[in-house]
Amino acid sequence: xxxxxxxxxxxxxxxxxxxxxxxFATDAVIDDVSVGDTFAGTAGVRxxxxxxxxxxxxxxxxxxxxxxxxxxxxxxxxxxxxxxxETGVLNLSTDDKGLITKVDADLD
Length: 108
Hints:
Strand order of the largest sheet: 2-1-6-5-4-3
Shape: globular
Strand content: over 45%
Structural class: alpha+beta
CATH class: Alpha Beta
Radius of gyration: 12 Å
Order of helices and strands: HHEEHEEEE
Helix content: 25-40%
């Protein structure tokens, strides 16, 4: 799980949407209560990454990772970008192939 998180953060920090998308299952869902929307499937995940990472020039730093199950982790992150500075959490779930199936995202 740590390797997956490292690759995801590296891809989003490089604004490499294509590489980031390879880390998600095709039916993945991102539920971000801080923006009040859910993003489903490859098209939804792409829209989320392009809007909130590329669009805001977001840089993410991992503060801590807590394994919460075999296929789950709670990632505390520090975000900076055109919006300013925020901290938050990414509650990640993966499938048996190690692809991200669900992200529950929220700002602190």
